[in-house]
Amino acid sequence: MFDHHIICKDGFRNTVENDRVVGFEFQARLPYYRGLGLSMVEDLIITIDGEAVARENIRFSVRGRTWSLDEMETCYDDRWNFGEKATIIVLREGGLSAGPHRLKLGERLRISYLPFVPTTSFETQIELAA
């Protein structure tokens, strides 16, 4: 339904910690009309320039808190709200080069009233500023 809104064009940049580029990040939204508890986000599937990102290299951040995908599985006291932009961090030594990149994000969400776990994905070309 909202699949073409899940990757936000703003916030795409390399992630710098202690003057070292440790990866890249982008902002994303839920493709669902309601918010969800973080434990209901089953998986985030990311591909950058055709290369799949390993689950253990993905971090999810919202409202100043950051979780690995494994930590989110047992996070019952926080939510990802409808319309809220989360920062998705991909740990990748050296980050990405400036210029255009092909980014694909799949969000696998557990919806309480559905008898299956849907995955919504969207792919776009996005520009990393120099």
TrEMBL record:
It comes from Allorhizobium terrae. InterPro entries: CGDB. Belongs to the C-glycoside deglycosidase beta subunit family. Keywords: Carbohydrate metabolism, Lyase. It comes from the Bacteria. Pfam families: CGDB (PF19906). This is C-deglycosylation enzyme beta subunit. Residues 2-113 form the C-glycoside deglycosidase beta subunit domain. GO terms for molecular function: lyase activity.
